[in-house]
Amino acid sequence: MEMEVMEMEVEDTGGWDFLDWVGPDTSSCIFQLLDDPADLARAAAVSRSWRQFVIDNGFCKSLCRRICPEVANFTRAVVVTRSPPAAAAAARASSGSSRDAESRTRERDHAVYSCLGGALVSDKPSMDCILHCIGASSTDYFPDETIDNTLEPQERINHRPSYWSSGGEVDPDVPESLTYRLNSDICIIDEVRIRPFKAFFQIGDPIYSSKAVRIRLGHSKLPPGEESFVTDENENQKAIADENYVWTYTSPEFPMLQENVLQTFKLPRPVLCVGGVVKIELLGRIQKQATDDKYYICVCHAQVMGRSLSPEFMVDISDPADYSILKYLPGASNLRVEDIMNSDTKDSTEWHSLVARYRQMRHRAMLNMLLGPVHFMDEDDDVGAVTDDDIYM
């Protein structure tokens, strides 16, 4: 409706530009009322003067910040093309005046953030974004009760219970945490889902839920390639230390029900996770185990629901302490996997960096499939039987 009114005003002025008619200050106030990136794009398409007004005032970037405040962490945006820039264009860019350079920067930011805004409000369905497990704060019996079990939606695999269990504690206030790597370095996260585990092999079928849940999103400070993850031989305790991460978002605390169902914890707003790491904090313990009179927390299944913004958007990970460069790769979403993987020497340096990161993520996914939790049933086990080791958390 707001856009229709502005377009009518342009016609009614008999050739007078609406921006000149009401003045720049009032025009800015009106443009800042637009809360949909599509409306802002339509406004920029009305005329050359309107487009320049939108570009000069950085309205697209401001709107992205209003939608996701985490966008403010980006100090610079760059456009990455597969082909290296032409020598003549590069020469003009290096020899131009400071005013020309500022104009090009505003044009570039407009292109990047107008597309980012559309991606932030996209109606594409959410999916589970977990790529693999980084580690848990404690594990009772490793690897039988590893965090990797939380990637399985079933509570039984090959007739055996599948869950992660914390270590036992006398103090019910001792927290636990589960840390995951997402399938992209830049994702929009809407909600987290957790299913507490019901110990069907214990008397009374106790449910080992936590009292509350809190979510942290951020990125690793470890050098690229040095982040490890859980294997059957490695619990990966060192990698989950908070000093190895920068948490850019922390959710409120959500109460958890002591029920064996997949419980949804919806974030107050969609959050831009820059860096692809999610930490689920499990706060407080409810259930004691009868055999040792200690409190435990057990999770059957966990999901981090959202949308990846890759491969069109990526972040610069060359410096693990600085995820402030937003990279936009126009048209990358239309490329096939083969197009991205089969790079050649003529591709730009930035494109080679993208390919390297893409291959790294695919390598992680393959390792996760190969080294993930594998459950075997003993030959002597009856269907549905539980061994003595399964009775203790």
Automatic annotation (TrEMBL):
Domain F-box: 29-66
PANTHER family xrefs: F-BOX DOMAIN CONTAINING PROTEIN, EXPRESSED, F-BOX DOMAIN-CONTAINING PROTEIN
Protein name from the UniProt record: F-box domain-containing protein
Pfam family, one: F-box-like
Lineage of producing organism: Eukaryota, Viridiplantae, Streptophyta, Embryophyta, Tracheophyta
